[in-house]
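hey m, so remember when u said the tokens were messed up on ur end? i reran from scratch. heres the input so u can diff it against urs
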Amino acid sequence: MAASENMAVIADGQGRTLSLRRLTVLDRLRLFKAAGPVLAENAPWFGMAVLAASVEAIDGVPVPLPSSEAQIEAAVVRLGEEGLSAVAEALEQRDASSIEQLAGNSRGTPT
């Protein structure tokens, strides 16, 4: 299996360095399994789980993809508000950039 694609390295409000991974389809499938059928349908809860699962390392220390509800919750607690906010902002910027490219409206495109 190929290693996940490293997306970005960001800093959170606590000064920690967070390395992010792009979740693969298999990663997301495993995250659904870890969350279980009820929590996987709870959009706010699962959204936080995706943010936590998107962190590949904290200050250079690898963070494995959570494989249970308890591991997801532990990752959320470890990241806290500052970490989750930084990850959300980075993913939002990445998604906005992807949308611009798909639409052909990336910076430098003549209008």
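this time it looks ok to me. Strands lie at 6-11, 17-21, 55-58, 61-62. if urs says something different then somethings off w ur setup not the seq
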